[in-house]
Amino acid sequence: MGKKIRKIKNIRIHREGTNTLTYSMALICGAGILLWYGFDNTKWPFWLLLVVTVPIWGIVLNFYRCPIRYLNMEDTEGIVVAPADGKVVVIEEVEENEYFHDKRLMISIFMSLFNVHANWFPVDGRVKSVSHQDGNYHKAWLPKASEENERADIMITTPDGVDVLCRQIAGAMARRIVTYAKEGEECYIDEHLGFIKLGSRVDVFLPADSEVCVKLGQKTTGDLTVIAKLKPATAGKVS
Q1: What's the pTM?
Q2: Which of 62, 163, 226, 229 has the most crowded Cβ, counting Cβ within 10 A?
Q3: 202 neighbors 84 (Cβ within 8 angstroms)
Q4: Residues annotated as catalytic (active site), given as ranges
Q5: Per-residue pLDDT for 125 more than 90?
Q6: Are strands 186-187 and 125-133 parallel, antiparallel or unpaired?
């Protein structure tokens, strides 16, 4: 694992948004036809519909963008990439008592409404476990969101035996977390881990001695921004 040539390709619409975009466009077109032919003396209701709905539809279209990305790196051993587009809102050492029961380096990326909301695997490896937990819908950038909000936890074991936890977190507006990761399957950087609808956040928990490669407030590009490197000394440590 980790020996792959990668390059950026094109952009498509994520499958999670196909129905939403199709049905909403059909509704807009239907309403437009009714307004165009329903008012003989004036067309302002038709134009008002376009002024209101087209920008909103455009925002939704932007939200469901799904870039096909490939990290331009031949060897991904020890590399941790950003699992999402967004902004780094947390870089800190925390006590993780649910899975690791020790100190971990947590890097959190907040996704706004205008970011791509597809999620990528942050490391190469094998999916050790996948779990979903219901919870609250605090604003995603708040510290308590990581533990109290609805979330999906994906534990990945790298080829070196290091466990990395990737956590998809619902935000104040997000009401659906989609996770494609399956327990026992091999996973790679460049592959989609899942999708979160509307504003949300993704946390990555790494060994405490990992080398941080991003700064607080830095913007990230999912699958392309290297956020950390696992140190060789961590190899073989399995939780």
Answers
A1: 0.76
A2: 163
A3: yes
A4: 200
A5: yes
A6: antiparallel
